[in-house]
Amino acid sequence: MGLLLFCISAWSQEVIVSGTVMNEQNQRIAGAEIRLGAVNVKSNSKGMFLLRVTDLPAQLNVKHPLYKNYFEVVRPPVYARDTVKLDIFLEGKETELEEVTVNSSKIIWAYDKKNTHIIDFALYDKEMLLLCKEDHKYFLRRLDSIGKKIVDLQIKKNATALYTDCTGGTHLVYSDSIFEIKFIRNSIGMLAGNSYAETMRILAPCIISNDNQIILKRLGPHNKLVEYLKVDWNTKKPNLLYTTGDQEAMRGLDEYAATNDIAVPLSNPNYKLPPQMTGSSDRAKWDNQQFYNQVLKKPLYAPIFEINDSLYIFDHVMDRALVYTGSGQYIRSYPISYHYFENWKSELFLNEEKTKLYARYEIDGLVTLRQINPSTGKVVTLDVLEKHIHPMNIQIRGNYAYYIYKHYLDNGIHYLYKQPLKE
Predict the structure, then answer these.
(1) Of 19, 323, 325, 352, which shows the fewest CB atoms inside 10 Å?
(2) Which CB contacts under 8 angstroms, 24+ apart, belong to 150-158?
């Protein structure tokens, strides 16, 4: 069996979408280009438009040479035969040009030693920890709040990354081992190393740890089922907090696994291959097994975060977010749609203070960060990380986005930068 394609449409009925394009003075704008999904129209002389679509939610793009580009996600109507009506207000372009100029001029070296190769970094409190390489030697380097070196600890060669566990502990990672790092006054210490595989088997399922409980993540068949368990510190008893899954993807992967002799747990253990289906050749099965392991079994993305003392689960399969108290009591849910903006990288992350949530988008290597209001799921601000393509390991502290950038003239060195974000 060849590549398995999953075509899942959230909405398959035709919907009429109509609207009016206006500026900030409520003047109607003619000739604006409107694209909703794959459908394109232009606003008429009265600024009005109408189009018919079958696939919603979808990204709406509105462009006009005199105004800033407008982006929104259009959701299907509550009732199938309703018309979706939109009032679109475009902002003048002068503001956009000024903002781009300001942002572009404020790209800052977060660590300006140009002979230092930055492998990884971690923000903690007001300080920073670098995993770096100089003159073929590897170091853990502790920096203060203004990027000045506090202390170096030379380590054995070929360290690959830093890892932060659910309790906030920091670890140094090698391909086969992992070491916990301790900060003692103005020094760095390391505990004895352990097997990487065994340590991550214990640490990786823990997502959140607070005074009340720990939250564990468990994946189901084909990694398309996600369960969150809360474990009380006192009773040690696990209780199911939330579960979600992509049932259609699991059914398709059951068939894919059975056809290609992939030995994995199925969502339906009683699934049997239809007699009319013929087996693949050994070579095709091998190729499909690798494709399954490297691509198809990518875990379902429904992350949980602790924000302002509450727990938030962002279920992108069900297009909803759920809010719980810090102790795991359900409060409410609300719809989300930011993940339907084009070029979303299936990545959400918090700032270091755990007060702001960001979604990552990438076009031709340039990253856009949309700040998401965790209480509503709405986009609050939009920032483009200028000039540096494919930034790695983005972290946010205060009003800055920190990231590692691979210099285009030298593949052997990575630098650490930061850029200001909108308030």
Answers:
(1) 325
(2) 150/186, 151/186, 151/187, 151/188, 153/187, 153/188, 153/189, 153/190, 155/190
User: Over the range 71-101, which residues count as b (16 or more CB within 10 Å of their CB) and which as e?
Assistant: bbbbbbbeeeeeebebebebeeeeeeeeeee
**Coil vs helix vs strand at 284:** helix
Per-residue pLDDT, 319: 95
- Look up the CATH number of domain 15-104: 2.60.40.1120
Helix (H, G, I), strand (E, B) or coil at 255: helix
Please state, for a pLDDT cut of 90, what percent of the chain lies above it.
Answer: 70
Instruction: Out of 98-102, 229-233, 337-341, pick the least confident.
Output: 98-102
pLDDT at 121 over 80: yes
Average confidence (pLDDT) over 43-53: 93
Domain positions in the chain are 15-104, 107-203, 248-296
Q: Residues with Cβ < 8 Å from 163, sequence gap 6 or more? A: 170, 171, 172, 173, 178, 203
Contact 387, 393 (CB under 8 A): no
Name the 3-class secondary structure at 157. Answer: coil
Taking the whole predicted model, whether its pTM rises above 0.70 is answered as yes
Q: Give residue 337's pLDDT band: very low, low, confident or very high (50, 70, 90).
A: very high
**Burial environment of residue 364 by CB neighbours within 10 A (0 to 12, 13 to 18, 19 or more):** exposed
CATH number of 107-203: 2.40.10
For residue 408, report the phi and psi dihedrals to the nearest 5 degrees: -70, -20
Q: In sequence order, what E strands does 156-237 have? A: 161-164, 170-173, 177-184, 187-190, 194-195, 206-209, 213-219, 225-232
Query: H or E segment at 41?
Result: strand 39-42
